[in-house]
Design brief:
mainly alpha; 21 helices; globular; GT87; transmembrane
Length: 440
């Protein structure tokens, strides 16, 4: 067999993905254009940053976390100035700050270079995430990945923070699981959790479907690999930079209610109980109730739910009950929402809500102290329409997914003999435990 003949099948498989890669690159480029007003100097004026809707954490954190002079986790800075992210993101920041310092002697120029380098990585992460999502969706639903490539909310939120890195790792995990490569799936899951904490919700989804199908060995191998990968990247910092390492976990625990969260509405309006009780307790209790409902649904459904459906429900529940709901959190949910239910109408409605929230949060901050520019910003009531717009539209999508689970014939993905395109060992698996089996 010639080398050309060996390469031909791979090339043939790659060709259908090329247009999606181009669209993802387009989305990444548009996201860069959105922030050009800040990239060319607007970051140094908070009013200009908000009125041009081009805020990002990347540029200011270069200064505020002393990246120009210090190393994350090992920095000799006050505890509240330590990098408040898990270690994978901290080390990405570290490497790019080294490169920026090497390229530019001036700190302001370094920060801009740090932003540019980070954006290149995030753009590549978006392209990778889109291609991986397309592979997970399979040939019959490949073009659903366009939602992740060029959805308006994705373009607007892409470079606010480092979330796209975790998105690519999560999609890689899902594809590895779909291809029954449990060790690789576990490693990618562990790295994803060490990048952003939200992929931890996928452990519950895998556990529930494992419980229903009794495919315990693949699940345990994946979990062992995830724990191992997480420990490999975390242990050195836990041992040698304990205070810097634990900053993320302390910050997450002690952080109060913040922008985007429905709890902020209840506090602002002074609601009894919901606006007065400890938000951490309320959030955890609410998440526990929703997760219990997802567990009951998974084990009671007439047909085993698809993995993407349970991942979406778990992740949406986490976002809706969290103490903070930043604009970039939309990047977490888009690929899983599309894989769970690729119906354009509720997805488009949700995108409108996310775009409105993206606009509303910056206008709202203009009217808040210390800027207090009421002439440029919006008030509480207008802002909270955006908060509830996201809650309601995601709730609508969750309701449709629940309906598809209870009535599998409505699931547009389960057509033409497809059971679960991301299911891996779950696909076409027999039920070993359901709630109905208890009564038999």
């Amino acid at each position: 067999m010639t080398s050309t003949e060996v390469r031909a099948p791979l090339a043939a498989r790659a060709i259908p993905f090329l247009p999606l890669g181009v669209f993802a690159a387009l989305g990444a480029s548009l996201a860069y254009v959105v922030r050009l007003p800040c990239r060319t100097g607007g970051w140094n004026d908070q009013i200009s940053t908000y009125t041009n809707f081009c805020y990002t954490d990347i540029y200011p954190l270069y200064f505020d976390r002393q990246l120009a002079t210090e190393n994350p986790y090992f920095a000799a800075v006050p505890f509240d100035k330590q990098v408040e992210y898990p270690v994978v993101l901290g080390e990405v920041m570290q490497v790019f700050s080294w490169i920026a310092r090497w390229l530019e002697p001036d700190q302001v120029a370094q920060a801009v270079r740090f932003y540019d380098l980070t954006v290149i990585l995030l753009g590549l992460s978006l392209v990778a995430g889109v291609l991986l999502m397309a592979a997970v969706a399979g040939p019959t639903r490949r073009w659903d990945a366009l939602w992740y490539a060029v959805a308006p909310a994705v373009v607007l939120a892409a470079y606010i923070n480092w979330d796209l890195i975790a998105g690519a790792l999560s999609m890689g995990m899902l594809l590895a699981w779909a291809r029954k490569r449990q060790v690789l799936a576990g490693v990618l899951l562990g790295l994803a959790i060490a990048t952003k904490f939200y992929p931890l919700m996928f452990v519950g989804a895998l556990f529930l479907l494992t419980w229903r199908t009794a495919r315990w060995r693949p699940f345990l191998v994946t979990m062992a690999s995830a724990v191992g990968a997480w420990l490999v990247v975390n242990l050195p910092f836990m041992v040698f930079a304990w205070d810097g390492w634990r900053r993320f976990y302390v910050f997450s625990q002690e952080r109060g209610v913040d922008w985007g969260s429905p709890w902020l509405f209840f506090q602002n309006k002074g609601w009894p109980v919901l606006g007065e009780a400890d938000v951490s307790t309320l959030g955890m209790a609410s998440l526990a109730v929703l997760c219990f409902g997802i567990a009951v649904l998974t084990l009671a459904a007439p047909r085993r739910p698809r993995l993407a459906q349970i991942c979406f429900l778990a992740l949406a529940a986490f976002m809706m009950t969290n103490k903070v709901w930043s604009p970039q959190f939309v990047l977490w949910l888009v690929p899983f929402a599309v894989l769970a239910r690729p119906n354009w109408k509720p997805l488009a409605l949700w995108q409108l809500a996310e775009v409105w929230y993206f606009v509303a949060i910056w206008l709202y901050l203009l009217a808040q102290p210390p800027l207090s520019r009421d002439d440029l910003g919006i008030g509480d009531d207008t802002y909270f329409t955006a908060v509830w717009g996201r809650v309601i539209t995601i709730g609508i999508m969750m309701a449709f997914v629940v309906r598809d689970i209870l009535r599998p014939g409505k699931d547009v993905v389960r057509q033409d003999g497809i059971d679960d395109q991301a299911g891996g060992v779950f696909a076409d698996a027999r039920d070993r435990f359901t709630l109905a089996s208890i009564t038999r």
